[in-house]
Write a structure and sequence with these properties.
The chain is of the alpha+beta class. It has a single domain, classed as Glutaredoxin, CATH 3.40.30.10. The chain is 62% helix and 14% strand. It has a two-stranded parallel sheet with strand order 1-2. The chain starts with a helix and ends with a helix. The mean pLDDT is 88.
Amino acid sequence: MSDVESAREVVPSWFDPLCPWAWITSRWLLEVEQVKDVRADWRLMSLAYLNLDQREGKGLGEQYRALMERAWPPVRVGAAATEHAGHEVLGPLYTAIGT
């Protein structure tokens, strides 16, 4: 990492690969990186885990529950990639999954 890179403000950015709001925010943050001294530090999170495991699915409608069930594969891919290559791989992986 260069001195310029290390001087940038690090912005932790937690995302679920299937969340459209996280996607929109991530694209905005990439634009901000181009004009401000900030750098996104991509972090994986799982709405499926939060909603299905921690909250035991309480209060979820059938459509949302079905979406959460489909959310596991991209989260698992992100977790495996992080374990294999470090969390630095998450930004490019998220872009690839999203596009």
